[in-house]
Amino acid sequence: MKPEPLLEVENLAVALDGKTIIEHVSFSLEPQQVLAVIGPNGSGKTVLLKTLVGIIPPAHGVIRWRPGTRVGYLPQRFHVDHYLPMTVQEFLNLKSPAKGALHRTIAAASMGEKWLRRDLAHLSSGELQKVLLAWALLDEPQILLFDEPTENVDMVGQESIYKLLHRLQDTMRVALIIVSHDLHVVYRYANNVLCLNKQMVCYGEPEEKLTPDTLSKLYGDYAFFHHRHSNHQRDDHRYGHE
């Protein structure tokens, strides 16, 4: 029997200042599934995630969460004042976690105990992403939404973050919605892909939906060629010596 979806979206449209940003968006997400959202810059990916979590109201359409679903959201950017005198532990304690929850969470986020004493303002982009992930995990979410989790993170850090997300999907049984520009990540980790460029261009299994014609419509001929060539280079580098 097919499980009840955690999330169903039907014919969603979002407008800001009277201008339509996205429209005709429909998809669903089942427990433990991974949905990748791809599209060019300015296509409405961040707006979609903010609408799903209630930061931006929809213009019309339906967003239906399964009752009681706990949701975690990691934004694309999180500014930390470099003069802020706060350790990782002090930051995480702002959520007043239950006894033992903090240490379980930092372990789940692949952070050792020594992380708790580190200054929040002195973390790298990849390290800060892990702290934000731990923050989200304190709520024991059933679904996590990530807006480009590897932006400004080096290649080694990117691989570490995606492996961590994959492990969380398995060990904590969470579903994931990930905004990504990396088609290699989409093919490797996603059950379904949502192609977005102001409106839904495609939705379904990556191997079926990410055809050259679809990617050309999504990114344009030149951008698609460049994107595809870059991904082939990364694939060769990744697997060439295995």
TrEMBL record:
Keywords: ATP-binding, Nucleotide-binding, Transport. The keyword ATP-binding applies. GO terms for molecular function: ATP binding; ATP hydrolysis activity. It comes from the Bacteria. Gene3D superfamilies: P-loop containing nucleotide triphosphate hydrolases. SUPFAM superfamilies: P-loop containing nucleoside triphosphate hydrolases. The keyword Heme does not apply. PROSITE patterns: ABC_TRANSPORTER_2. Coiled coil: none annotated. Belongs to the ABC transporter superfamily. This is ABC transporter ATP-binding protein.
